C-alpha cells in the first residue's frame, strides 16, 4: 500500500458516507433526530464537522500503517495525509472559536455563563469517562491485572487522565496510543472555555484599562496552569482566532452574501487544496490563513456546491465527537489486536486495507450508538442540571427580594 495515495482517503470517505446513509434508512431514531434538529443556522458547519472528524481517523490510519511496518510513530510523508489530521484539528478549533465568540457578540453581558459551564462539562465527559474506563481496563487486562504502581501513583494517573493528559498507566508504555493520543486537543478546548469570560471582558465588554490588564494577566495565568504538564503551544491557540474572525465576518451582510457566491465556493476549495497539498503542518502562518479563508466562507453558509448538505454528511457531523474520541481505540483494536488473534500479518496490504474498511464501517456504527445513547442523554442531563440550579437560585433568593418582585 502506498501511504501517499489519496484514493485510500476517497474510498474511506465513501464507505463512511454510505454507512451513514444506510443507518439513516435502517434506524428511524436517527432520521427523526435529523428531522427534529432541522436546518441549523450554521448547517454548513455541521456538515464540515463530519468531514473533519473522519479525516483525523484516516490520518491516524496512515500513521498506524507506517508504525506497523517501521515500529515508529511519525507523520505521514504525504502532505495531504499529514494535513488531514492537523488541518482538521485547526478547523475544529476555528469552529469552537466561531460558535462561542459569536454567542458572546450576540448576547453580550446577558450571556448565561452558568449554562455555558455546565453544558461544556456535560458535553465532554459523558463519553470520555466510559472511554477512559475502557482504556484502564484494557491496560490491566493486557498486564494480567497485576498492579505495578503504588496506589497513590495510580490515583495521580487517574486524575491526569481526567484532565485529558495521557501519562502511562501502570507502567504500560505509550498508553495514549490506545486512543491515538487524541485528547491533547481537549486541553486546548478547555483552555479556551476557561479563558472565554476573561477574553470577553477584555475585548467585548471593555470597562477600563485596569480591568483589561487584569483579564490579560488572568488569561496568561490560565495558559500556564492548563499547560503545566505539557506547555500549550501559542501557534495552536492561534487557530481559534480564525473562528473569532469568522464571528465578526458573518455579522456583515455584504460579506455573508459574497461568501455564498459560486466564486467564493471556488476560492474556498482552492484555499483548502493549496493548504492540504503545499504544506505538511497546519499550525503555521500561511496554512492557517488559507484555512481561515476557507472557514469564513463556510461559516457564511456556503455548502461548497452541496458537499456539506446531504443528510448522511449531517449525521457524520452529529456524531463527530464520538468519531473523534473513539476512532483511536477502534483502530487499535481492529488493526493491531484483531490480526494477532486471527494470526494475520497486518503489515500486508491485502490484510490492512480490508481491516481499515471494516474499521470505517464499525466506527460509524459505534459512534452513532454512543451519540444516541451516551452523548445525547448527557447533553440533556446538562440542561436539566441548569434548570435545577436556576430553581435553587430562585428558591434561595431573600424573602424581601421575592416580595419586591
TrEMBL record:
> One of this protein's Pfam families, by short name?
Acyl_transf_3
UniProt keyword annotations, A-Z? Acyltransferase, Membrane, Transferase, Transmembrane, Transmembrane helix
What start-end ranges are recorded for coiled-coil regions in this protein? Answer: none
Residue span, Acyltransferase domain = 43-366
Show the stretches that span the lipid bilayer: 6-27, 48-68, 80-101, 122-142, 186-205, 212-228, 234-251, 263-283, 289-308, 315-335, 350-374
Record keyword Transmembrane helix present: yes
Task: Write down the InterPro entries for this protein, in alphabetical order.
Answer: Acyl_transf_3_dom (IPR002656), Acyltransferase_3 (IPR050879)
Q: Name one GO biological process term.
A: polysaccharide biosynthetic process
List the protein's name.
Acyltransferase
Amino acid at each position: 500500500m502506498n501511504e501517499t495515495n489519496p484514493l485510500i482517503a476517497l474510498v474511506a470517505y465513501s464507505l463512511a458516507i454510505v454507512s451513514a446513509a444506510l443507518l439513516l434508512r435502517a434506524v428511524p431514531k436517527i432520521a427523526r433526530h435529523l428531522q427534529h434538529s432541522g436546518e441549523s443556522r450554521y448547517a454548513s458547519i455541521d456538515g464540515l464537522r463530519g468531514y473533519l472528524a473522519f479525516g483525523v481517523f484516516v490520518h491516524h490510519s496512515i500513521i498506524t500503517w507506517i508504525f506497523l511496518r517501521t515500529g515508529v510513530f511519525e507523520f505521514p510523508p504525504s502532505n495531504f495525509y499529514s494535513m488531514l489530521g492537523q488541518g482538521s484539528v485547526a478547523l475544529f478549533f476555528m469552529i469552537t472559536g466561531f460558535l462561542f465568540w459569536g454567542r458572546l457578540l450576540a448576547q453580550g453581558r446577558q450571556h448565561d455563563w452558568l449554562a455555558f459551564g455546565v453544558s461544556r462539562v456535560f458535553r465532554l465527559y459523558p463519553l470520555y469517562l466510559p472511554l477512559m474506563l475502557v482504556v484502564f481496563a484494557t491496560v490491566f487486562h493486557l498486564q494480567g491485572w497485576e498492579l505495578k504502581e503504588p496506589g497513590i501513583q495510580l490515583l495521580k494517573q487517574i486524575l491526569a487522565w481526567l484532565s485529558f493528559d495521557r501519562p502511562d498507566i501502570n507502567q504500560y508504555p505509550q498508553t495514549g496510543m490506545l486512543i491515538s493520543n487524541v485528547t491533547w486537543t481537549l486541553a486546548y478546548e478547555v483552555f479556551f472555555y476557561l479563558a472565554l469570560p476573561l477574553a470577553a471582558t477584555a475585548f467585548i465588554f471593555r470597562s477600563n484599562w485596569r480591568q483589561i490588564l487584569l483579564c490579560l494577566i488572568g488569561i496568561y495565568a490560565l495558559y500556564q496552569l492548563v499547560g503545566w504538564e505539557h506547555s500549550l503551544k501559542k501557534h495552536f491557540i492561534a487557530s481559534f482566532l480564525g473562528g473569532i474572525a469568522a464571528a465578526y465576518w458573518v455579522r456583515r451582510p455584504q460579506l455573508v452574501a459574497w461568501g455564498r457566491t459560486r466564486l467564493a465556493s471556488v476560492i474556498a476549495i482552492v484555499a483548502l487544496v493549496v493548504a492540504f497539498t503545499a504544506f505538511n503542518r497546519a499550525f503555521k502562518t500561511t496554512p492557517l490563513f488559507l484555512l481561515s479563508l476557507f472557514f469564513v466562507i463556510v461559516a457564511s453558509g456556503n455548502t461548497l456546491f452541496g458537499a456539506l448538505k446531504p443528510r448522511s454528511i449531517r449525521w457524520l457531523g452529529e456524531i463527530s465527537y464520538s468519531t473523534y474520541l473513539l476512532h483511536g481505540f477502534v483502530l487499535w483494536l481492529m488493526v493491531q489486536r484483531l490480526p494477532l488473534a486471527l494470526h494475520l500479518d497486518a503489515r500486508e496490504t491485502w490484510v490492512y486495507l480490508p481491516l481499515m474498511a471494516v474499521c470505517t464501517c464499525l466506527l460509524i456504527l459505534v459512534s452513532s450508538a454512543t451519540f444516541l445513547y451516551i452523548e445525547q442523554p448527557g447533553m440533556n442531563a446538562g440542561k436539566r442540571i441548569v434548570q435545577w440550579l436556576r430553581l435553587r437560585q430562585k428558591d434561595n433568593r431573600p424573602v424581601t427580594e421575592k416580595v419586591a418582585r
